[in-house]
From TrEMBL:
Organism: Kitasatospora indigofera
Membrane topology term: Multi-pass membrane protein
Transmembrane segments: 30-54, 60-79, 100-119, 150-169, 181-201, 213-235, 256-277, 302-326, 353-376, 382-406, 418-440, 460-480
InterPro entries: AA/rel_permease1, APC_superfamily
Phylogenetic lineage: Bacteria, Bacillati, Actinomycetota, Actinomycetes, Kitasatosporales
Descriptive protein name: Amino acid transporter
Amino acid sequence: MANDGARAPQDDGRSAQPGLRKSLGVVDGVVIAASSIAATSSVGIGLGLTAGVVGLHLPAVALLAFLPVLGIASGYARLNRVEPNAGNAYTWVGGILNPWLGFLTGWVNLVGGIVFMAYTTTVTGSALLQLLGEAGLHGLAGLTLDPDSTAQTTLVGLLVLLAATLVAVRGVGLAARLQKYLLVFEYLVLLGFCGYGLFAGDQPFSLSWYDPFAIPSLSALAQGMVLMVFCYWGFETVFSVGEEVRHPRDASRAGTLALVSVLAVFLLAGTAFQRVLPMDELVDNGAQGLTWFGHRLAQQPLAALPLIALTFSAVASLQAAVIPAARGNFAMGRDRTLGPVWTRLHPRYGTPAAGTVLVAGIAAAVALLCLAIPTVTDLIGAAVNSIGIVVALYYALTGVAAAVRFRHLLREAPAQALRAVVAPLAGAVVLLTLGGYLAWTFWSSADHFELSADNGWFQLLGPVLMIGTGLLAAGWARWVRKSPYFTTGRGTDADAADLTPAPAA
């Protein structure tokens, strides 16, 4: 592993696998990563949830959570430079650490993404119903429209998921162009309102907001950081399209730029929200926090702008979530750890069209199952905590893989080792500690199972199911599909496929 270059293509019968088109640059990558992180949605929804845990310390926990994620991002960037792959962490962890861990990394990323799409479908529907309410439409055909009704919001959101899927089938270039316009509008509105809120708010400012030692308890710190890690989740989407980016360095730059810009937004928004909203209002409004923030700062029609930005953000993040899930499955399909349906490329658009439609269909089915949770706020709380734990797990595995892969730099190039070995490993240790401690607090907080977002055993059910089904699926791939991934410990190289250049614009 002393060689830091890309691996040579393997001649094992897989070189004829279908290839994705190289069509994306740095700006496209930043747009895809930032849309996947969905800063506006995180601000509008996640800040209220996090404030309920850490109190008036949103800026502190946003900065603390950023540090380990930045370390993991450094590992992603270095690994992508030597081996860009649609499977990214699945391929890297499997080849460097262990195929079972690699498959589990890919699986929990896939299932977590599907759960994210399912609840984002509901969030999108909620934002659209809120917009209708702002426009004066509070009922339809005798039915009172309720933006906190899981049933109503899910049905509306499924229509948006269908549209997002059709755009994704057309290609990441089209998706990136659409997301770029949505993203510009979101950021202009968010920065404008939050900047104004810093000066117009009547809540007294305090430097203690930035003091992590003032957070009420260790468990609050752990849960708050996992929630914020979830809010940063998505920067690696740009590495999922690494085989479609013209140069590996472009993907690395895009991921880092997206993360840093989102940190700035979170610090600004966390401070502005606490200047404008008393703590009880920030916590109580939950999924409608950004809407309430806008109403406190402006009159209609300007007060509706944050809600429109939230809607755009939800649509863009739903669009962005479909893309990496389909491409991760594409990589797993060509390794025969998943079925061949995932590797079928559209003859015109060169995208994994069948896999894109299939993963969206699964997400729609999960969204319908989530109707068992009656309110949007409870659904978001349950989903975010579940996904946050598995995100911490697979980020940590990727960080460890990067540290092992580039450990030779500790003696050969100590300065490079800081970013390729030390930072990813430190981030991995922090995230494993946080995820493990949070799982233990959930387990110890209840003595029975109950279908409730406040029940610790229910909150653990998601991660347990994701990991358990991953082990079963890995066993099927290893002994039934007889995937060479488990015997060679290596996924198919991106270079082994005939990457077809995109036609000139």
